[in-house]
Task: structure prediction
Amino acid sequence: MRLQPTLLIALATLSLVGPANASAYDSWEGFYGGLSIGQRTLIADWAQTGLYDTEGPYLMDSHFTRSSRDRAAYAGVYAGYNWLISSQVIAGVELSAGYAGNESSANPLYLPPTPVFDGVLPTAAATTLKSDWDAKLRGRLGYMVTPTTLLYGAAGVAVTQLKATTTCRGPIGFVCFGPDRKETVSETLFGWTAGVGVEHALSDRVLARAEYSYTDYERASFMAQRSGKDDYDFASGSGSAAAGIRGRADLTTQAFSLGLTYRF
Result:
């Protein structure tokens, strides 16, 4: 079998540049840290699953759902370690944390059809879902297309805090008769996250990064309750019992960020 001259030249060239490139890739191994800025989008699928009072749930078929998106500026920090597992492939682990002031609000209250009400009835009750900080622990796997450019994928676990605030504004409002009242329920949510990105060396120590990530959190359930002798009880028509709203939320986020990394 005879090799074409051009193929022989290509093989000879690779044999010459291979060792030099392998030594250049060594600089990617080790500790690093960085700062990032960008934008995070919160997608909230919110649902009212029923009304309840001190006697237990009632009007459980009073469902209302809404999906909303909220975009906010996102800032974060990250740190990690890379291992060179072959001449151009790295594996690593990274811990990051970020902040964005994402909020989603809903204020209609859905009632089942009755002779009086049919459909969505505006009310003085408003629920706001807020997720600000997040933290992620991810594994990374990357391929160096050149000694200065790395393409990578990342996946792992994430955690955030959901704050569900329901405000009842009196004296006029369905389920919200009486003085104004606000209640906030906080819950820590865990989920999974995945992303892709590219890093490019600006110098021996400094890298520029661009990354997209997607995060899906577990479902959160919450209740906003009205309590006190002046509260209105929808079931009995009296003002001596508590009344409230039961809800749930499914949260996902999408983030795009640009970062500067320093290699130690």
Q: What stands out?
A: The chain has one domain: 5-263. Helices lie at 5-25. The first strand starts at residue 30 and ends at 53.
